[in-house]
Amino acid sequence: MIASRVSLLTRAGAATAATAIALAGVAVTGSAVGAATHHSRKLPTSLSIRLVKHTRDGFDVIRGQLRSHRVPLRHKTVLLESRTATTTFTVVDSARTGAHGVAAFKVTLPAETTKYKLVFAPHPNFRASHSGVVTIRVASTPPPALRTSLSIRLVKHPKLGFDVISGQLRSHHVGLDGKTVLLESRTASTKFAVIDTGTTGLHGVVRFKEATPAETTRYKLVFEAVPGFKASHSGVVTVLIKPAA
Q: Which pTM does this prediction carry?
């Protein structure tokens, strides 16, 4: 009887030990799975966007910063997407982030109002994200033409056989260079007609060297309207030629 009880206790102890080991194994396995799951969890990201305009240079710059938990992410690909009033967002360019997680895009000014956003695609270690939207607006109608003014000055060189007629083309007190100016003249028996053309240089100044006329002649400068600027003309200067005695 005593031997039988010992045998039963021994078997019971063995079974209990086996159960404990099994439970411990399950606990270890579950812990390992949890650790693996935690290790493979993707980190969240954020993507900012900023528009810097360079309208006079014909382009704008769109830049953004990619971060995770406020830490910049470098060497990651960021996509630039755009859309107009009649299209959906599509990828138009891509760039890699730099040392501070910044990606920059140089965008030629569009022909119509266009919206842009930045996109970070899914990554093995990071979640996808996208920025807000910035808009490059293009006016549907051209802006009103600016007023212009055109001065004139006569410098005579009778001994050298010529005169110099100069003028300055301006808009709101700013000289306009690279613009075409006409020189017109008339005598007592003729009407004003174009006799020469010139192009304004630095500060909007233009000059004409004209041979001394055989009779009294009046001169004026004329600027014809071009996109963005209204037409204007100068006053009149006169080269007075006295009749022979």
A: 0.46
